[in-house]
Structure formats: C-alpha cells, structure tokens
C-alpha cells in the first residue's frame, strides 16, 4: 500500500485556498480557508463619481456660455495689440503644466469643498461687474477664481493645490485696464530713457533731452510707448514664472527667479535704447529708427532671457551645481 496523507481523500484543493495552522482541528487536521474575491465598488460610490463627472461637464458648458465673448475679445487683443502678443502661448503652457501634474491630480483624494462654491460665486460677481461697468479686464480676471473654485468644489483641496500653478499661470494671457497700462508704460519709459541717455553720453554721444524727445546732431528721436519695454516685461514675467516653477529648490528661490525677470527686462530695454541712440549719433536718426529699431526689439527679449537663464544657473542648489 502507498501511504496517503490525511485529508487527501477530500480531493484537490481549490486554487484560491490556503492552509491555516492558526486553528488546528481535533487530531491535528488542517482547516482550509478560501480567499474571497475582491468586493465590487459600492453602487453609491459609482453614482457619486458619475454625478461629479456630470456636474463638471455641465460646469464646462456653462463656462463656455459665459466666457465665449471674453475669449473672442481676448483673441482679438492678442492678435492686434503687440503688448499681449504672447497671449496665445499661455493656455498651451498652462495645459502642459497641468499635464505635468497629472500624477498629483490622480493621487489627490476626491474631497469636495464647499468653499469652492464661494470662489465661483465671487468670480461670477466679478464678471458681472466687468460687464456692467464695461471693464474688459475684470471679465478676464474673473476666470481665475471661477476655475480654482470649480476644482476645489468638485475635487477638494489636494487637487486644487496640484492645479494651482496651471490655473494661476493663465493670468499672463489676460489684459490690464488701459489706465494701468498707460501709467506703467510711462514709468518704464521714463526709467529706460534716463538709463539709456546716461549710458549713451558715457559712450561719447552728444545729446539733449526734453521729456521723451532726444535731440542729436543728426536729428531728433521721439521715445514712444512701444519703447517702454512693457511688452518684453510681460513676456519675460511669464517666462520667469515658468522657469521658477520648474527650477528645483525651495519656494523662496523660485519666487526670486521669477522676480528677477523685472530688472532683467528693464536692463535689457535700457541697453536697446542706448544702442539706438548710439546708432543715431554715429550714423543717422533714419538708420536708428528703421530696421535697427525693429530688430533690436527681438534682441531685448533674447538678452533678458539670457540674463534670466544665467540667474537660474546661479541660483541652483549646491548639490545640483556640484554635479
């Protein structure tokens, strides 16, 4: 006879079964426990997820209905006003930043927060105020609290934190009231002219300044609003904010890098105006105000971007710099 282990007469075990010695029965027999299949998602959870998805879809449709005129006017501003010519790139960068945060968004537990509804209400009120007062800038800026409030209300604080930068970055595509733009342009132009005239005189140029007009031996140069550097400043602020976000290190280092875009843009514009004055002095006003003036506008942004990248390299953490 072939010896047979006790319990073999019971036939083959179930594939999902396992032996458990914690509770040996009488006579040392082994008890068999079966592993139960994973529980199916609760119907209430499925219904809740579907309700959130349906509510979010309804919110997107409502946003499109409310902001379609604002979006059309924004596009018209981007394509006709050089100050905001960087605008079309901002939503693309924001979408890419949101995609980069997809892991954090997936990991965020859905915990709807009622405070988001208050933010949505505040944004809608700001939009209504902008429409009633005919202030287009308010209509555009109202989009930010509405978007952030929707994320907070539907998905909770963790998801809102993950989406905070992509939403806030959309602010770089929005416009400012004309009064603010004019005041800022004048202040930037005043600073740029003061710096450039001193630099040009130090380099041998002979000129006389009267307000925003420079008188040289070859003619006169009138410094207009496009020469204020506001366009390059706004574009560089958007670039600096993105560089700060992707730069490793603490929040202070990132904010410093973003803030350095302001002096970098001002310095680059002053260098440009200095070059224009020198061309007018050693050449002619026609040469300075012609192709050189137009080409130097692009050089301003590239110069400021180079300064910003150099600052980013200097602000790298020591461990990364050593590597």
TrEMBL record:
> Can you supply a Gene Ontology BP term from the record?
proteolysis
Question: Which GO molecular function annotation, any one, does this entry have?
Answer: peptidase activity
**Listed transmembrane segments:** 53-71, 136-155, 162-181, 230-248, 255-283, 295-311
As for subcellular location, the record says: Cell membrane
What Pfam families does UniProt report for this protein, alphabetically? Exosortase_EpsH (PF09721)
Instruction: State the annotated membrane topology for this chain.
Output: Multi-pass membrane protein
InterPro entries linked: EpsH-like, Exo/Archaeosortase_dom, Exosortase
Q: Where is the composition biased (Low complexity)?
A: 1-10
Report the GO terms under cellular component. plasma membrane
Show the segment(s) annotated as Disordered: 1-32
Q: Please provide the record's keywords in A-Z order.
A: Cell membrane, Hydrolase, Membrane, Protease, Transmembrane, Transmembrane helix
| Signal sequence interval, chain numbering | none
Broad class of where this protein is predominantly found? membrane
Enumerate the NCBIfam families for this protein. Answer: 8TM_EpsH, exo_archaeo
- Give the protein name, as stated in the record: Exosortase/archaeosortase family protein
Recorded source organism is: Eiseniibacteriota bacterium
Organism classification: Bacteria, Candidatus Eiseniibacteriota
